[in-house]
Amino acid sequence: MEKSSSTRHALDINSRLVFMGKHPSDIDKKHTSLSSFYLYYLYEHRHPRNRVLHYIGTSGVIALLILSILWQYWTLLAFIPLVGYGFAWIGHGLIERNKPATFTYPLYSLASDFVMYFHWITGKLSHQLEAMEKHYGLSDKD
Question: Does 32 map to a domain?
């Protein structure tokens, strides 16, 4: 019995791409710009709880940076990687269950984290997530 069109569209992106012998991480291996990487970054941060942990970590990084400058207490700078990466890696390990992009693209990943944070603060993240869904075939929206 042949599956209906709606059933085929109901498959998630991983099922479709793995079936075709590809996975999103294989598709976008060669990122040559931040804008192309950012869509992949958003794909790896689809779960809202993972993004919340990233926002907490990024807010902590910003707070530590500001406080270290205001108080001239430079030891606080040593905690920036722990706070920034700690929350993010917990989100990837326990919620998203994927490998953080930091290991493959450290600079693009760091920049994308701040871009995502800015989009979240300014209310533009939903538009960016829609673009990512369209790029990866997760949405039927044109």
Answer: no
